[in-house]
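<goal> How does this chain fold?
<body> The protein record starts here
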Amino acid sequence: MTRLEREKHTVAMMVALYCRRREGNKELCGQCRELIDYACARLDRCPHGERKPSCRSCAIHCYSPSMRERMRKVMRFSGPRMLFYRPLEALRHLIR
C-alpha cells in the first residue's frame, strides 16, 4: 500500500469514528462522506505526491478554509480515540 493510500484509509477511519461517536450516526452521513471524498481528491492532487508532509506542516494549503476547519474538528476528536478503537492504525500513523 502506498503512502497516499494509507493516508486515505486513515482519514476515512477517523471521519467514520467521528460520525459514529460524535454525531451518533450508525451509518456514515452525507456530510462525512463528502469530507472523505474531498480529502481523497485533495490527496490525489497533492503536488508533493508520495513525499508529502503532514498537512499541518505543509506550506501549500490545498483545503478550502471551511473544509480545513471541518477536518480539524474531526482530527481533534478522533485522534486521541484512535488509540482505543484502532490501536494498530493509530500507532502506525504516529510512527510515520
Notes: DSSP finds four helices and no strands in the chain. The chain has a mean pLDDT of 89. The helical segments are 3-22, 30-44, 65-85, 87-95. The two ends are 14 Å apart (CA to CA).
